């Protein structure tokens, strides 16, 4: 763990060795700083001999701040609601679904395979296999690409993928010493053996173990890493607050205009029907500026206002081979095309997944940044997003950290997260990937674009990017 963070440039090499070589020019949220994208190619990304995989549709239940209306539920309740919403939206026959895969991060021990429990609860056949994946904040991305692989290989034609997270109720364990004692008691065969084990219990055995949003390999919380990253790229508190305010303002506008059509109502047992996300709260720079640093105190720049909040929610998408979708009478929303996963050093480059993944996925697809009409990046922290944009726009970073000849360039903000992002809509860890894909598909249709690029960072220094192509109208 580094010592107390300051914004003095002289401290940066100890934090990120490459940091002082990056340009420290201000990255405003104004789109005028970015060159306009050149006219894009109109070619399709279909490949000979490769099946086209389509997103028929996708939904999510409203994303809510943890501790609110979903607090008394379990993760499979949320996932089940998303699955039922998908069934209602698409009218797909349950028996037509051949496989279900869900992502989750904080596992409920009673429903470790939450995909299976949610599927059974939603009324799917007990003959429909289901499994659960985990890859931190890109868990539903992994669920979707697992579905893509099953369909592309010809094993399946119809797969449901999704993700769920319930941060209102996370598993809290006894300490390891207490667990060992309790297991020993269960095996003890006599009263004297049990009394002997009980006599060894000490007060510190009773201290609980809580799950931490921290890296196991470094023991550093993601918030601390985000603060160091913002400092390394000379991203000010004001810039971070401006970007967070942008996210909330755009999300509020999209919500008010009815653009968030992937949201389906959820009747919470014993409570009202939830209709919309509850974390969208445009404030003012003055109010945001009053908040104290959340992680690195007192000099940090990451606060509760410019970070994504703990969120409960679930999402699901219906994936099919194109021929199957058309045979069943569907008009798909989009094609899922090339995708990549990347990983870096979790100590110094924990949150830079989009920077590494974007040029790789563009090369795989034979596209350039100028070909992309819609960008949807996961917003873990405002500083994380702005650091990625600066890294993507740095030749030095590309050459010295990525082994590339030149930078890929930064996405123009007029195409970037135009309906808000995780800072405002919320971030149920494993459910965000499906939201990103569906927002991309809906924006492509509304804005008349052809290609979208989804990207996200994840714990462990990992990342993901995918090309989404609008389905022809």
Automatic annotation (TrEMBL):
Belongs to the thiolase-like superfamily. Thiolase family. It catalyses: dodecanoyl-CoA + acetyl-CoA = 3-oxotetradecanoyl-CoA + CoA; hexanoyl-CoA + acetyl-CoA = 3-oxooctanoyl-CoA + CoA; an acyl-CoA + acetyl-CoA = a 3-oxoacyl-CoA + CoA; decanoyl-CoA + acetyl-CoA = 3-oxododecanoyl-CoA + CoA. It comes from the Eukaryota. GO terms for biological process: fatty acid beta-oxidation. This is Trifunctional enzyme subunit beta, mitochondrial. The gene is HADHB. It is an enzyme of class 2 (transferase). Residues 330-470 form the Thiolase C-terminal domain. It comes from Varanus komodoensis (Komodo dragon). The keyword Mitochondrion applies. GO terms for molecular function: acetyl-CoA C-acyltransferase activity; acetyl-CoA C-myristoyltransferase activity. It is found in: Endoplasmic reticulum; Mitochondrion inner membrane; Mitochondrion outer membrane.
């Amino acid at each position: 763990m580094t010592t107390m963070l300051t914004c003095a440039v002289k401290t940066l090499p100890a934090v990120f060795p490459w940091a002082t070589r990056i340009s420290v020019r201000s990255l405003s949220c104004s789109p005028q700083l970015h060159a306009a994208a050149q006219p894009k190619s109109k070619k399709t990304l279909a490949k000979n001999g490769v099946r086209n995989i389509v997103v028929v549709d996708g939904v999510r239940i409203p994303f809510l701040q943890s501790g609110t209306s979903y607090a008394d539920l379990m993760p499979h309740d949320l996932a089940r609601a998303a699955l039922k919403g998908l069934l209602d939206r698409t009218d797909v026959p349950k028996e037509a679904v051949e496989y279900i895969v869900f992502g989750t991060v904080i596992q409920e021990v009673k429903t470790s395979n939450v995909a299976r429990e949610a599927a059974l609860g939603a009324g799917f056949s007990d003959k429909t296999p289901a499994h659960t994946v985990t890859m931190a904040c890109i868990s539903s991305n992994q669920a979707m690409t697992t579905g893509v692989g099953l369909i592309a290989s010809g094993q399946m034609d119809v797969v449901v993928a999704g993700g769920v997270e319930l941060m209102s109720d996370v598993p809290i364990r006894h300490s390891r010493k207490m667990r060992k004692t309790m297991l020993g008691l269960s095996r003890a065969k006599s009263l004297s053996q049990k009394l002997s084990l009980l006599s060894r219990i000490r007060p510190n055995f009773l201290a609980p173990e809580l799950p931490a949003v921290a890296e196991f390999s470094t023991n550093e919380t993601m918030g601390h890493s985000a603060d160091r990253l913002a400092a390394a790229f000379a991203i000010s508190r004001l810039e971070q607050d401006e970007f967070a305010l942008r996210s909330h303002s755009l999300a509020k506008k999209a919500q008010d205009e009815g653009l968030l059509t992937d949201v389906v109502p959820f009747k919470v047992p014993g409570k009202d029907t939830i209709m919309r996300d509850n974390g969208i709260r445009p404030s003012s720079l003055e109010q945001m500026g009053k908040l104290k640093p959340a992680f690195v105190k007192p000099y940090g720049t990451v606060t509760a206002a410019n970070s994504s909040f703990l969120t409960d929610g679930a999402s699901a998408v219906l994936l099919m081979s194109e021929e199957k979708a058309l045979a069943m009478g569907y008009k798909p929303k989009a094609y899922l095309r090339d995708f990549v996963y990347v990983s870096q050093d979790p100590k110094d480059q924990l949150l830079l997944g989009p920077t590494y993944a974007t040029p790789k996925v563009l090369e795989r697809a034979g596209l350039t940044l100028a070909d992309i009409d819609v960008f949807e990046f996961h917003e873990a922290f405002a500083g994380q997003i702005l650091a990625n944009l600066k890294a993507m726009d740095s030749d030095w970073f590309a050459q010295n950290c990525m082994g590339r000849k030149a930078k890929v360039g930064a996405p123009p903000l007029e195409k970037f997260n135009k309906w808000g992002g995780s800072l405002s809509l919320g971030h149920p860890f494993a459910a965000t990937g499906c939201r990103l894909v569906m927002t991309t598909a809906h924006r492509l249709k509304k804005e008349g674009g052809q290609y979208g690029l989804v990207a996200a960072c994840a714990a462990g220094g990992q990342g993901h990017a995918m090309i989404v192509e609008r389905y022809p109208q």
